[in-house]
Amino acid sequence: MTDNKDDFEAIRQIYTVLMLHFMDGMKQSDIASAMNLSASKVNRLIAQGRKLGMVKISVESPFQRLVELEKRLTDSRGVSSIVTPAVAGSPDTTLQQVGRAAANQVLETLRDGDVIAITGGRAVSAVVENMQPERRFDVTVVPLTGGVQGKFYTDVNHLASRLAERLGGRTMLVHAPLFAENQDQRDMLMEMTSIKEVFNLARKATIALVGIGSIVTPGSSYYDLHPVPDLDREDLIRNGARGEFLAHLIREDGTIADHPLNSRLVALAPGELEQCPRKIGVAAGPAKVLPIRAALNGRFLDTLIVDEETAASVLETLEPFQNVA
Predict the structure, then answer these.
(1) What's the pLDDT tens digit per position in 188-205?
(2) RNA polymerase sigma factor 70 region 4 type domain: from which residue to which, for each copy (predicted)?
(3) What distance in Å separates the CA atoms of residue 46 and residue 69, rounded to the nearest whole number?
(4) Which of 15, 21, 24, 93 has a CA 20 to 30 Å removed from the CA of 223?
(5) How many of the other CB atoms lie within 10 Å of CB of 73?
(6) Following DSSP, what letter does each residue of 183-224 receive, concatenated?
(7) Mean pLDDT across the stretch 52-67?
(8) Which domains are present in the chain?
(9) How many helices and strands in the chain, by DSSP H and E?
(10) What is the Cα–Cα distance from 87 to 148, expressed in whole angstroms?
């Protein structure tokens, strides 16, 4: 039977080696030399220390609040989350930080041969402008919707071309308006060979990069998208719409709103991205809280990239609902 004194000496030696290695940063070879041990003995003592539970590693972020928000979002809805700092009094800077984080997230997983499908919107535009790859990628970028000319962030074809240019890839464009004049015209456009080909490719996308749109504030991008200049915002809200996803008006529970505008959309429906392995939603600002909640309730995303103030507000609305459920 091993003597207690021997046990103590063995533990003391393990402790000394662990302190020198993990706290003082000494190499195992230097520890062996300092303690007149063989390198294999030092390695064995470190392994024993780990087995005995003497090594506990704690990694803390200087942005611990952001890490906690990410974990809460993931626990609440099962989406991988990246939360960026909010810059007080500067929504544009906050959006650019979200765009930079989303760009880096795309680049971390992007592979040659991938298809990237995107929407328009200010947030997606911020992602495109912050995309700084270290090499060229053999990828194809395609729109998920028809386009609206007039502003750089509403013209999804412009954003798709710009993203393909930055990545060194190619693009296929949708030469059709986002809103058709009626449902029959929409159905006809969706069956056109050139448009059908792009949308078929979008359905097989490896990465979908999408904005999450607000319909609450009069200045929301949604009101730049459609051809009705005097669209009644209050009417949309009364009909249950809380946001837009792929330009589709969606309710709080994530279902597609029963609104005539949805039937005129030249765009993929949210459910058609179900097989896409990386659905990245990008949003910033208080106006996006309700739309984000609706998109999360609809299970449209597997990754959400958002600023900290918006993330906190989304959680305030999600967690009480979850507790009741």
Answers:
(1) 999 999 999 999 999 999
(2) 17-51
(3) 35
(4) 93
(5) 24
(6) HHHHHHHHHSHHHHHHHHHHHT-SEEEEEEE--SSTT-THHH
(7) 81
(8) 4-51 (1.10.10.10), 64-324 (3.40.50.1360)
(9) 13, 9
(10) 30
